[in-house]
Design brief:
CATH class of the largest domain: Alpha Beta
Number of helices: 14
Number of domains: 3
Structural class: alpha/beta
CATH architecture of the largest domain: 3-Layer(bba) Sandwich
Shape: globular
Radius of gyration: 24 Å
CATH topology of the largest domain: FAD/NAD(P)-binding domain
Length: about 475
């Protein structure tokens, strides 16, 4: 006997669990299915983000940053540290505890909002009575039905062709978060978000880190001026980044991994490392969904094809997050999840993709929203730019972290903010002001005229806005 619901959400990552909660708030009887489990077999909702992505990586970044501060920067504050050492097992244990807190938090939110949770793999069975029958394969198999379905099954790490992940020597983001000891030499293929963040963690703890990037430019999606500033900081830290490489044969053995590649000059090279993290992007996860049998349309990347409202080609079936087009970001998935729940309820959910912020949680942090300078040039948009360096900010000096800058791009005619880009301390937090400003179509003059607390890092945002009109006060 199947269990009837108004809505079934397949996947409990940021897009799925948020969609389920919002739909329940709107009065729907909601089921959410997710197959993640902890090592001891307990339910672990939260998807890649909570279990092997955003949350655990930030925990390791924080631990490694604390270690580096103690090793290299405490002396500046008159603090003497002797016998410093890193207990990697304890660091990993703390990371696991943080993950569990988030898992448990989602289970609590499901209970609070009366969302029925099923631990197992959800898949389509057949269309029934204007809706769909969904099977839950797991320790307790179930059959559910609903007229509305949201697919939020996320994405999986992309492997190098012919080089599968063994999670011991050749690692995805999952294995990179479970390294048991600091490797002497660590290699990364791909200088994207995951590569730079994981490279930073183990570089801080003493690993010799080499990043191999196929593209000729560093962080091509980032504003060029900001990317160059970040590259200078990473070079200074000792993170070795080689651009324009072509990776050849990868061999894994008991002693480590050997990577043959050709550098930008066309010279044959070999990189010998203890561990190799492959960070060359992610692919939409539709395995086991039974999409083809249902006639659910998939794109060339394996993504579920949706329209602007996240509707699929099947009536009553929606898809959000990494499994559809657009940036693979947890907060983008959340916004889509909320919007779809509201659309199902007859409301007008909305997501503005131009206002989705991007963040790389390295040190310095990199964050941006809106258009880059190169995008504006390519589109022929007339703009004016203003920058302000953190080295001229009093709070940054007091923190001892003056790397980087804030950059504003505004329309020449209207002064409307078109993009804001940052590299420096707490950029992940500072970017929110830019998102709010751009959501209200503010001008750079609006930000320049708003009083910001002194001393604060946010003053750099105000000063960069002033710089658009060439009237900075502190630089």
């Amino acid at each position: 006997m199947s269990k009837p619901f108004d809505l079934i959400v397949i996947g409990a990552g940021p897009g799925g669990y948020i969609a389920a909660i919002r739909a329940a708030q709107l009065g729907m009887n909601v089921a959410c299915i997710d197959e993640w489990k902890t090592a001891d077999g307990k339910p672990a909702p939260g998807g890649t983000c909570t279990n092997v992505g955003c949350i655990p990586s930030k925990a390791l970044l924080q631990s490694s940053e604390n270690y580096e501060h103690a090793a290299k920067h405490f002396g500046e504050h008159g603090i003497t540290v002797s016998g410093l050492k890193m207990d990697v097992a304890k660091m990993i244990g703390r990371k696991d505890a943080v993950v569990k807190q988030n898992n448990d938090g989602i289970l609590y939110l499901f209970k609070k909002n009366k969302v029925t949770y099923f631990n197992g793999r959800g898949s389509f069975v057949k269309a029934v009575d204007g809706g769909y029958e969904i099977a839950v394969a797991g320790d307790k198999p179930e059959t559910l039905t609903a007229k509305q379905i949201i697919v939020a099954t996320g994405s999986s790490a992309r492997a190098l062709p012919g080089v599968p992940f063994d999670e011991e020597h050749i690692l995805s983001n999952d294995g990179a978060l479970r390294i048991g000891a600091v490797p002497k030499k660590l290699g990364l293929i791909g200088s994207g978000v995951i590569g730079l963040e994981m490279g930073s963690v183990w570089r801080r703890l003493g690993a010799e880190v080499t990043v191999l990037e196929a593209l000729p430019t560093f962080l091509g999606a980032v504003d060029e001026q900001i990317a160059k500033e970040a590259k200078k900081a990473f070079d200074k830290q000792g993170l070795k980044i080689e651009l324009g490489v072509k990776v050849g044969e990868v061999k894994s053995g008991k002693k480590g991994v050997s990577v043959a590649y050709t550098n930008a000059k066309g010279e044959a090279q070999t990189l010998e490392v203890d561990k190799l993290i492959v960070s060359i992007g992610r692919v939409p996860h539709t395995v086991g969904l039974n999409a083809e049998a249902m006639g659910l349309k998939l794109g060339e990347r394996g993504d579920i094809v949706v329209d602007d409202d996240c509707k699929t080609n099947l009536p009553g079936v929606w898809a959000v997050g990494d499994v559809v087009r657009g940036p693979m970001l947890a907060h983008k998935a959340e916004e889509e999840g909320v919007a779809v729940a509201e659309r199902i309820a007859g409301q007008h959910g909305h997501v503005d993709f131009n206002l989705v912020p991007w963040v790389i949680y390295t040190s310095p942090e990199i964050a941006w929203v809106g258009k880059t300078e190169q995008q504006l040039k390519q589109a022929g948009v007339k703009y004016k730019a203003g920058t302000f360096p953190f080295m001229a900010n009093g709070r940054a000096r007091a923190l001892g972290d003056t790397t980087g800058m804030v950059k504003f791009l505004a329309d020449v005619a209207t002064d409307e903010i078109l993009g804001v880009h940052m590299v420096g301390p707490m950029a992940s937090e500072l970017i929110a002001e830019a998102c709010v400003a751009m959501a209200f179509r503010a001008s750079s003059e609006d930000i320049a005229r708003i009083c910001h607390a002194h001393p604060s890092l946010s003053e750099s945002t105000k000063e960069a806005a002033l710089a658009v009109d060439k009237r900075t006060l502190n630089f």
